[in-house]
Amino acid sequence: MSGITTGNSSTYEPLSSVYWGGDHLVLLDQRLLPEEIVYLKLSTPEEVWEGIHSMKVRGAPAIGIAAAFGAVLGGILYEADDSEGWLQQVVKTCAYLATSRPTAVNLFWALDRMKLAAEKLAADKLDTAALNAALLAEAEAIRSEDEEVCRRIGENALPFFKDGMGVLTHCNAGGLATAKYGTALAPMYLAHEQGLNIKVFADETRPVLQGARLTAFELQQAGIDVTLLADNMAAMVMSKGWIQAVIVGTDRVAANGDVANKIGTYGVAVLAKAHGIPFYVACPLSTIDLNTKTGADIPIEERPAEEITEGFGKRTAPQGVKVYNPAFDITPNEYVTAIITEKGVVQAPYHESLKSLFE
Ligand code: MRU
Fold it and tell me: Where is the active site (predicted)?
């Protein structure tokens, strides 16, 4: 992998976290933000797998987009000129990329879509150059549709946000986690475009600090009012009356409306309910998994102990201490005021309202 350092920029331009570079995938290395803006050039499915696994690219939609381009790389690396062998290689690549992270369903959604496209293309018995070009077009479509979908999520969310409101968010569900705009942060960008002032409070989001490193960074770059909080400050800030709404993204919504999101989200939802504050979840339909019945069926990723004992370099815990490090938690549906999607806003009972989004 090679990196291009472009340095910090003082003028605002939204950074693209994942895009196609002609014959390779380009990833913004989110592990290095906000200190360094480094773009990586990935040319093999193995490099894409590692990029997703190590969270150089992260956030449910962005992971799906990266994996879709990873499937394209699998096809490009196939050397013979028979559509059957090409299809087998693409299917094998998709199965491999699906092992990179377990919780965000967008990964599996995007890979299933790529597999289906490859099957249809291979049936037409095109030469491999034509197959690769058509498969790339499918990955590009996943990326461009995500941008459009996120904008629509923002439009559907905007009526819940008024000028001067304080809004708390957890983790990063912004432009960096998607093709553009984000999900939970999309209404902030749209409000800003319309001259509304929303005061965003960003939880720092232990242990990987997506709130501090990514949400605070991208909102500040955009000129949006953002205040960074340590995770344990949310209750205090809510009790002061500074927060009128909470909005978060999600990695997977189960059929009953239970929501998997970054560890700590459940606590924020409980606090919101205790303070009478609405708790909104913003996501594309590709994050809703009607095949997963409840939150208890969602696989929760556990990550290395070092993220807690020596996050970003310095050791902060005794050697050998036992550590539990789940990357996500489940917010039960009764804490979710509404789920905001590109197709509209749904509320409880979720097993009915979520299903209606797909009809
Ligand atoms: O571990 P991460 O950084 O991939 O977790 C990301 C989140 O939890 C986001 O809130 C979620 O993926 C939604 S991104 C639009």
Answer: 251 (proton donor)
